Amino acid sequence: MTTPAAPATGDEKTLAVLAHLSPIVALVLTAGWLSWIGPLIVWFVFRDRGQLVRTAAATSFNFNVTIWVANVIGWICIFTIILLPLGLLLIFIPGILQLIFSILGALRASKGEPYKYPFQVPILH
Fold it and tell me: Where are the domains of the chain?
């Protein structure tokens, strides 16, 4: 029988919120190209601080890598000219989803609850 996990501390919640919101900061500063860096840094540096931090950073990284891949494919489509409409969709729709899901993840993390992004390639655990 496993014992239930201890409730997340204030520091763990803050780091988990940071893992979810750092992609939005990168979205503004780097036009989305480095949105996966913030969660990866949180995962590398703080993953041993608690399960909430580890899960938040890993799922945020996985989701943002998925968004990054969609953006790269979108830009390739834009440069082919013929696939310009598809390319625009692959850039703007994932960008909007990135904003929405990152905010939802941060809200859940602030309550000490884990958040699982709906679309992600499982890279980190």
Answer: 10-106
